[in-house]
Amino acid sequence: MTDAEGARLFRESWIAGVHKHFPGEPKPDYVTPWEETPEWERQAAGAVYEQVRQFLDLSGGHASRLSREQKSRFVAISWTAQMFKHFEDPKPGYVADWPDLPEWQQQTDADIFEAIEGAVA
Hints:
Blueprint: H1 3-21, H2 39-58, H3 68-86, H4 103-120
Helix pairs in contact: 1-2, 1-4, 2-3, 2-4, 3-4
């Protein structure tokens, strides 16, 4: 899978997770299609995709045995690092610690990990 395909998989998994887990109607920014996604966000999505892919590879595929919470935490901390990379002073919600994230976002992050896992298996 190319870097662009991995980034797009991340974004499409995010959108699917938002539609599945978000209570009510999500903000339009949460479900912006890939074609309209800002470049910084595409880069961040690609970087997190690559981190998950490498993590799975380095574990010999055994990272698939992580709990959904652990998978979600990995995606969340990887995303937080990207927010610090792309923004001098990111919004607090962009860099919130995992326990402070809403349940829908925690579940969506786990879905992202599992989508990447499925794609690289």
